Amino acid sequence: MATKTPETTPDSAAGPAQRATYGAAAQAGMTGKLPMPFPRTIGPNAMTYLQEVVDGGLRGDLAARFEQRFAAAMGVKHCVATPGCTPALQLLAMALSLQPGDEVIVSPISDYGTIMGLIKEQLIPVFADVVPGTVNISADTVAPHITDRTRAILAVHKTGILCDMDPLVALARANDLVVIEDVCQAVFGRYKGRLAGTLGDAAGFSFDSEKTLGSDMGGCLVTNDDALAERARFLGHSRGAEMRPGFGRLHVAAGTALRMPQSTAAITLAQLEIIHEQVAQRDRMARLLYALLGEIPGVRPLEVPDYVDVLSPWMVGFSVEPGAFRCSADEFGAQCAAAGIPGASTARYYLLPEACTFLAERAAARAYPYSTPPASRSYTYGGDTCPEAQSFLDGFIRWSTFCEKYQPEHCRLAADIVRQVADAQRA
Fold first, then answer.
1. How many CA atoms lie within 13 A of 25 on its CB side?
2. DSSP 337-392
3. To 10 degrees, the CA torsion angle through 253, 256, 257, 259?
4. Is 231 helix (H, G, I), strand (E, B) or coil?
5. How far is CA 35 from CA 141, 228, 274, 421, in A?
6. What's the CA gap between 33 and 41, in Å, rounded?
7. N or C: which terminus of the chain carries fewer CB neighbours within 10 A?
């Protein structure tokens, strides 16, 4: 039998393109002087729950139990467990029952998982720029992008810093739009006393191994909308099938299989039992770290707005001010990594309109759904379409190895490393 030749990119004649890695694999080989997330701390009841899956001969329903407990912890009516956050947001896109060519306004600084579901549903992502000097969109940056084809706003709480949601929700209500939160990096963060994920109409969460509530994988969506939750379960758990007497499964909708595995549910359930103190520790350590970084001339830590009561960061970072140092931001990050901050680097790939090159190609070719119809106009993608986001990421250095294992001495060490690099490179 002939084997399939590995797919290559056009400029990879020398061999297959290097595939992206995630989770522990993405951090393999990283070294430094600060704590690393892996091996992850696992809730003490994990083996009990996993044994329950085995002893029950796979008859138990740990996923349903997790859904109930996570919904209770969030204070919402519905939790629908999925294999990850990318599937959770995909399922939300499916459950909204929008039409090809409909527009969803999205944060430009994020990960591909935020928009994958939109792409698969033939929706058109429209990237609003961020507030200058920040990682997040706002009502002011979103408003100019609302058209008669806009159907939803997808706000990403990047780095655990929550978007200012009250004005965003007010804008959405005034224009009859759905509000979705991407809470992958902000689990159990709080905005004016309310939990991230409860501020709009629905939200997606990640429990992948590297995330704050890290399981082996997993995710979920939450909502108080009965109809939305039921449609999500129907499409993602029942695969769009109804049971008809004398026939069996009748597929009345194009569903899919996005169920959380039982063993994943067992681990995630155990992780849920230890998450609150871990988030509290992350909040304390991130705020201390940002205060220390703020004392270094030329270095600007991420700003935590007053409306963020609990900061639940998956990563931390800072910006280097233009002209403050002799080296580039890339060199500054590399020197921080060499001095002991694992994984410190720039992260320009978070600029979705530039990182997702297929979007620009499809839009330029007027390929479906960018053809007219169903699209109502032409679209352009690229880094320069969101200049504030592009400018921010050009000078932003982050490390995604930040975790609840940090203690005050680690924050001081990290700040000392940044200070040493800054002093050595000061212009």
1. 6
2. HHHT-TT-EE-GGGBHHHH-HHHHHHHHHT-TTSSTTT-SS----SGGGSHHHHHH
3. -80
4. helix
5. 37, 41, 19, 20
6. 19
7. N
Are 162 and 194 contacting, i.e. CB atoms less than 8 angstroms apart? no
Burial 14-24, CB ≥16 within 10 A → b, else e: eeeeeeeeebe
CA geometry: angle 83, 88, 90, nearest 5 deg: 115
- For the chain, give every domain's residue range: 46-273
Q: Is domain 46-273 annotated with CATH 1.50.10.20?
A: no
Burial 90-107 (b: 16+ CB within 10 A, else e): bbbbbbbebeebbbbbbb
**CA-based R_g, the chain, Å:** 22
Element containing residue 88 per DSSP (H, E): helix 85-95
The pLDDT tens digits for 175-203 are: 999 999 999 999 999 999 999 999 999 99
For residue 387, is pLDDT > 70?
A: yes
Beta bridge partners of 103: 124, 150
Cβ–Cβ < 8 Å for 304, 290: yes
In Å, the largest CA–CA distance within the chain is: 79
Q: How many beta carbons lie within 10 A of that of residue 194, not counting itself?
A: 15
b/e map 337-371, b = 16+ CB within 10 Å: bebbbbbbbbbeebbbbbbbeebbebbeeeeebbe
DSSP state letter for 7: P
Where do the H-state alpha helices sit in 121-203? Answer: 139-142, 165-174
Whether pLDDT at 10 is above 70:
no
85 touches 97 (CB < 8 A): no
When pLDDT is averaged across residues 372-395 and rounded to a whole number, the result is 97
Tokens of 71: 């919904």
* pLDDT at position 8 over 60: no
Give CA–CA dist 259/209, Å, rounded.
17
What one-character-per-residue DSSP string does 323-336 give? TSBSS-HHHHHHHH
pTM over 0.85: yes
As a whole number of angstroms, the distance between CA 205 and CA 331 comes to: 33
Q: How is residue 48 written in tokens?
A: 């009990």
Sign of CA dihedral 288, 292, 294, 300: negative
Examine the pLDDT at 268 and tell me if it is beyond 50. yes
